[in-house]
Amino acid sequence: MTNCEECLHYDYDEEEDVCFCNMDLDEDEMERFLRGDSRSCPFYHRGDDYSTARRQ
């Protein structure tokens, strides 16, 4: 089971104070994301603290 919070594509928007997936999801993928069902996410890529810091 994947965890969106560990994914490289999961970002935080400081202005809106929300977390979101920055991938271009289709309707079915967005529905799964909003339900929290990320087990079969085709975009999941686990990131570490260093790779996340490099993107900032």
Give a short synopsis of this structure:
The protein is built from two helices and two strands, in the order ββαα. It is α+β, with helices and mostly antiparallel strands and 56 residues long.
Could you please describe the fold and organization of this structure?
With 56 residues, the protein is of the alpha+beta class. The chain has one domain (4-55). Helices cover 29% and strands 14% of the residues. Strands 1-2 form a two-stranded antiparallel sheet. A hairpin with a 4-residue loop joins strand 1 and strand 2 (18-21). The chain is globular, with a radius of gyration of 11 Å. The termini are far apart. 5% of the residues are buried.
Arrangement of strands in the largest sheet: 1-2
Number of helices, where a helix is a run of at least 4 consecutive DSSP H or I residues:
2
Radius of gyration, whole Å: 11 Å
Order of helices and strands: EEHH
Name a few traits of the molecule.
alpha+beta, 56 residues, 14% strand, single chain
Question: Could you give the topology of this structure?
Answer:
Elements lengths: L9 E4 L4 E4 L5 H9 L13 H7 L1
Antiparallel strand pairs: 1-2
